[in-house]
Each structure stands twice: as C-alpha cells, then as structure tokens.
Write a structure and sequence with these properties.
The chain is α/β, with parallel strands linked by helices. About 35% of the residues lie in helices and about 15% in strands. It is built from nine helices and eight strands. The strands form two sheets. The protein has a six-stranded parallel beta sheet with strand order 3-2-1-6-7-8, with helices on both faces. A two-stranded antiparallel sheet has the order 4-5. Strand 2, helix 6 and strand 3 form a beta-alpha-beta unit. Helix 1 packs across helix 9. It is elongated, with a radius of gyration of 19 Å. The protein starts with a helix and ends in a 7-residue tail after the last helix. It binds nicotinamide-adenine-dinucleotide. Nicotinamide-adenine-dinucleotide binds next to helix 9.
Amino acid sequence: MHIPDELAERLRRANHVGVLTGAGTSAESGVPTFRDALTGLWAQYDPQELATPEAFARQPQLVWDWYAWRRELVARATPNPGHFALAELESRAPQFTLITQNVDGLHQRAGSRNVIELHGNLARVKCSRDDRVVASWPETGERPPHCPDCGALLRPDVVWFGENLPPAALSQAVRAARTADFFLTIGTSGIVQPAASLPLEAAQAGALTVEINPDATPLSRWADYALRGPSGVLLPALLAAAWPELNSA
Ligand code: NAD
C-alpha cells in the first residue's frame, strides 16, 4: 500500500508520537483477538464471557485454565514485524509513548521500552482479595492455586470486562494522548472503554491521528488517515516511507 508523502513527512517531523495498540497488533503473531473464533478445546467458549469477574466467581477453574492456555500460546508466539517497527519508531521519535491494551508482553519482547500496559499482563498473577502481585505459591495442583498470604484464590493480573483500569497507567495514557502531536491507533476495535477514548483525546488536542486496521471501526471517522491492512505490513511500510534510509539497511 502506498503511504501518502504528507503522512510520512509528519511522522518524521513529529515531536511526540503516541501509539495505542490492541489485540490486532498481535494477530500476525498467531495470538487470537477476542473477536476471532476460538478453536480446539476452547471453541465452545466466548472469550468476552470468560474475561469477566462474574465468570471467575462462577467457574474459577475454567477461567484459570483458559488463561493458562493463553499464557502458553503467547510463550510460543514471537513478535511480528509490526511490533519490531514500533520498537524502531521509539528509537527515532524524540518522545514516544506506547499504550497497549494487550496483555501478551510482545511489545517488550520486540524491544519496546516505554510501554504503558492498560490491561495488565498475562504473565503476572495476583491475589483476588487484595490485588497484590504474587510471584510464587506452593504447587499443590489446585487450579486456581491459593494466595500464600491470605488463602484467597489467585487470578491473572489482567483487567477484566467491567473492572477499573490501573489508575496510574490510565492517567499516564491520557497525558500522552493529550500531548502527542502524532497519534497512531493500531489493531483495536475501538469499543472497549476507556482505551477507545484515547484517540479522541489526541484528536481534540490537535494531534494528527492515524488508524491502522484491516476493517473500519467506530474510531475511523476521527482519523485523519485510515490505513487499511495488517499492521505487520503497514507499520514497516510507514517507517520506511518516513525514513527511506531504512530500506537500504
Ligand atoms: P479486539 O479483539 O476487540 O479487536 C481486534 C481489532 O484488530 C479488530 O478491529 C480487527 O479488525 C483488528 N485486526 C485484526 N487483525 C489485524 C491485523 N493483522 N493488523 C491490525 N489490526 C488487525 O481487540 P481490542 O480492541 O484490543 O479489545 C479487546 C480486549 O481484549 C482488550 O482489552 C485486550 O486486553 C484483550 N485481548 C488482548 C490480547 C493480546 O494481548 N494479544 C488478545 C485478545 C484480547
């Protein structure tokens, strides 16, 4: 896909690049989005119904096992060219903030350093009673295991539908959206709040806004540019258009 010259030029000259990523950014790494149908053992479940506090209260073992399966899937996955392009962009932009809704840690594995995780991380586990992160627990074979301090059930340290976002991460993300002069929204359906309002904050504060997604979303009409296609292809193309010397590297 051709990247418009003006867009490449604006990226090259940007002072603060803000980025919001969603599950689509990891799709080309083989990590299914919540809107992809699950396969195999999990085909009968709707991920949007498993990722809730109510599901955990009703069927803690089922939810624990589903996260254990996702953790293994992510451990086997590798970052794709879109993740690497974002790490490269971080090293080129004077100021750069990557805000992610993803819980898979693939941005960090691709070399991104300044990552705000809005929805937590699959690799961590916390106590379901007081939210304290727990690094280890006695292996008894129980699923979920129990908190070594208080005995409550342990759960993944992710934000489920209906739960609040970590306040510090959210306020850092809002600040970045309001101060970025170039804001990229990648691979998100734009319907999970409050993350979905960040591109609007950026647009209202005057940033140039760009969406990368194979499909239109509710955020598309706010974007100055909507690039239609997979981020693993379009992000490297955008970088190569902004910094042509990358083509010969
Ligand atoms: P989503 O599943 O709602 O939407 C995914 C979006 O990505 C869609 O708009 C789709 O068109 C787009 N997409 C698909 N393939 C793409 C590609 N190759 N390149 C670019 N875009 C592509 O995801 P969401 O908006 O992030 O919201 C769902 C919630 O699910 C989030 O809260 C997130 O925490 C969680 N989640 C995370 C992961 C992960 O960490 N990898 C995976 C699934 C869900």
